[in-house]
Amino acid sequence: MVVKGYTDRVEICFKGQIIADHRRLWSQEDVSFDPVHYLALLERKPGALDHARPLEGWHLPECFDVLRKRLENALGKKGTGEYIRVLRLLEKHSPGAVTRAVEKGLENGVIIRDGIAQYLFPQEEWGETKFSLAGREHLRYVKVAKTDISEYGALLSGQGA
After folding, report:
1. Among 101, 31, 94, which residue's Cα sits nearest to residue 67?
2. What integer is the mean pLDDT of 98-114?
3. Above 90 in pLDDT, residue 115?
4. 27 and 91 inside one domain
5. Is 159 contained in some domain?
6. Concatenated DSSP letters for 62-108?
């Protein structure tokens, strides 16, 4: 690991890649925390969630509090860990996007991290799909035989394959 100090920032590098970039503080004994950087550690020690110094003053929208309460009511102590897993979505997605996903999850009764994560992916509008034969003239001559479902009865009776 390599730490690079510049006049305006400090970079932490690992194997040639920047893994953290922080604004440089010049006041004596001043500390700056990015709460998102500590979420992986909190996932291993969820009991520290309410007492972690890096999370002091971290204000999240109200929907996160509602989510945490629902998770802890539904899952007990495991609910705190699941809540932290939801917070870890902030490592790869913007706070606004995660907030919208949590709100949508709460609206639909989805509180588990994997369900909430689904709302972070672009949702395509579904509509009636029509298949066009335009440009596929060879398909106009294909005939599909009607299925004789009585043949499936032989499979159920043990007489078939």
Report:
1. 101
2. 96
3. yes
4. no
5. no
6. HHHHHHHHHHHHHHTHHHHHHHHHHHGGGGTS-HHHHHHHHHHHHHH
DSSP states along 104-150: HHHHHT--SHHHHHHTTSPPPPP-------TT-GGGGG---PPP-TH
What separation in angstroms does the CA of 19 have from each of 10, 31, 37, 55, 86? Answer: 11, 19, 10, 20, 21
Q: pLDDT (tens digit, 9 = 90+) per residue, 122-155?
A: 776 767 677 788 888 888 888 888 888 887 877 7
Distance CA 56, CA 29 (A): 17
Give yes or no: residues 16 and 47 share one domain: no
85 and 20 both lie in a single domain? no
Domain that holds residue 10: 1-32
pTM above 0.90, yes or no: no
Q: Give the torsion sign (CA, 114, 122, 37, 103).
A: negative
Number of domains in the chain: 2
